[in-house]
Hints:
Chain C: Pfam families: TPP_enzyme_C. The structure holds 3 protein chains of 3 kinds. By secondary structure, chain A is of the alpha/beta class. Chain A has helices at about 15-30, 75-80, 115-120, 125-140, 145-155, 165-179; strands spanning about 1-10, 30-40, 45-55, 65-70, 85-95, 110. A 6-stranded mixed sheet of chain A has the order 2-3-1-4-5-6, with helices on both faces. In chain A, helix 3 (about 115-120) packs across helix 4. Chain B is an alpha/beta fold. The chains are: A alpha/beta, B alpha/beta, C alpha/beta. Chains in contact: A-B, B-C. The interface between A and B is medium-sized, with 18 and 25 residues.
Amino acid sequence: MTHEMILAGFGGQGVMVMGQLLTYAGMLEGAHVSWIPSYGPEMRGGTANCSVIISQEPIGSPIVTEATAVVAMNLPSFEKFESSLSSGGILVLNSSLIDRQSKRDDIKTYNVPANEIANSLGDARMANMVALGALNAALGYIVDTSRIMEAFKKIFAKKPGIIASNELAILAGVKHITG
Amino acid sequence: MSETRLMKGNEAIGEAAIVAGCRYYFGYPITPQTELMEYMAKRMPQIEGVFLQAESEIAAINMVYGAAGAGARVMTSSSSPGISLKAEGISYCAGAELPCVIVNIMRGGPGLGSIQPSQADYFQATKGGGHGDYRNIVLAPNSVQEMADLTMLSFDLADTYRNPVMLLGDGALGQMMEPVNLEERPFVPQEKSWAANGLGKRTKPNIINSLYLKPEQLEAHNIHLQNKYQRIIKQECRWEEFSVEDAELIVVSYGITSRIARSAIEMAKRDGLKVGLFRPISLWPFPSERLLTLAKQTRAFLVTELSAGQMIEDVRLATRQIKPVHFYGRMGGMMPSSREIYNQINLIVREKEAVK
Amino acid sequence: MNSKLYARSESLTDAPFHYCPGCQHGIVHRIIAEVIDELGVRKQTIGIAPVGCSVLAYEYFNFDIVQASHGRAPAVATGVKRVCPDSTVFTYQGDGDLASIGCAEVVHAAARGERITTIFINNAIYGMTGGQMAPTTLVDQVTTTSPYGRNVNQAGTPLCISEMLSTIQGARFIARVAVNNPSNMAKAKAAIKKAFQLQNSGEGFCLVEVLSTCPTNWGMTPLEAVKWLETNMIPQYPLGVFKDAGGE
């Protein structure tokens, strides 16, 4: 199975780190993984996005153009990447900031009010972690949630104070999907 | 420590250089290679190495020239416009036969161009770039692991041949993250009896120089260099093949583009098409001989690059055009999708079917 | 009993200088060689040769030399010195090399307090390429690229390198000397010796500017050239110590 994902939002929403955590977790699972950002002027103001691939096979192109999953954290990202989803793909929409729905009937959409959930946990900046938990659950757990936390602890080794709250955010995202 | 780490390509180059015994880095900031410079700024002081932010790319390459002349393993890195500035210094390194590693994380050009990935510096890298009859050894990784492996190889080749080695990547490879395993290896500093590091116990001064005012002497020096280049051509051609044995069409591609091409080839193979991939790893020396052999058994080539067509000239020369050589490229920082290359493959194969 | 009054410096090879009659490169080479001999550092010295008339310095100095590209000697010296911090590293540069194309390199080497010594030969003209205008060419001075004399409106004013570099914090010792008479030669040698000693005690960037003649490209006899230097160059480029940061 090869998961080819696009995670997108506006600069500052933490989509890059969301992708890195997922990639790291995939690596810890022993899968082939790659992460590649779109960078440059796009990072400042407009949409920021990254491609993440987690696969049992060696990875060819690290750039995702036909995605099995898309996370859209804001409206421009939704507009830009909705068409990049392959048939049967999964769309995770941050419904806190996106009030539209996809008209495609060949994909499955999950509406996740990521900002509201993160807010209720005390910090809207954790919306990316809510979306990450939701994405992983929606995909039937491409990585174990504990792996994401393991990755989190590695990447944020210098900020142990934020681990517990972010774990709650990831779990809240999972719970939103599993109910 | 052989722990697998998730690293950006630019960072992997930095750590691999350190593993390879490089303790001197001179650079100047430019996107999209700055992570490498920042990595060295952080790491070098931790291992008592030297990191120096030079006043310009020109100064940086000349610091490399000095450090290499004094016998050290030394590296600089930049991106396209910065490499143009280094060109004179690289020519001096080649002329004085100084081992050094130069990293070019290519971006779109010409001029200030863009900061997006490109492969438009192929000519500059492989045909010299600066003045005079000289060659850099040019290695082109296509994964983060290879960014590390080929960096280490670069230092070894530089010392073996007393020649500049250029690691040619692009913005995408520099920025992407993949798992990388950096095997610690014992580094034994090579004795460089030619280095200008003070007479010490020697009686005869060592001179680092590329000036030969007498034409007879300069010609002799050039012949010496050309003989060395011939040895490198014989010994250091590197490439990778995928599915070329029965391929009717062989895609030739390097660096990040070869990854995209590989995905396209896999799509085509699922359709039952006989397509393979030939990926030069050493761009100079170019693996010409192997390509000629393949030309005799395949029906056509498709060269794909992030340029208007630069490596294609070497493919044409290598294959003596005994088979058609097609081209598909994107420029200015645009990247083709796997689907685009897949469509090109289909187009060529169908044309061939029609004339069968 | 005979005693030896003069001997060739150990830091010089046997090669005869190729410099023109009346050119003062030879005098400055000799002074540097004597200083290195006297300090006993020949075995640890690495010189950086420039592009210009003294490009062949590696034929004359009897120690390791790295020949640099035009203007980049301070960058090359930086690379050498960082690899060999206990060595004595100096650059030898002319006015085209240092004050024109290599202005950035020398300024930043000084700003970093790079522990090197720079000997800067200022003869107000490009010698090797045959007498073109240098940044240090005097106002109204005729050269092949200022055939009507250096015109301030068109080509600006002479660059006073020692004055300029003495404003840089990282510079430890900056002096301007001349070798036009025995007394000035002694002063020049003292300054050059100090510039090497300070480097060897790890004190930072030191530069000695040496005013020098170029009879060939000035179109003068050696004697006329010395006179011209005294009446024209020294007023524009006054001699003295411009910075001695450690002089408690």
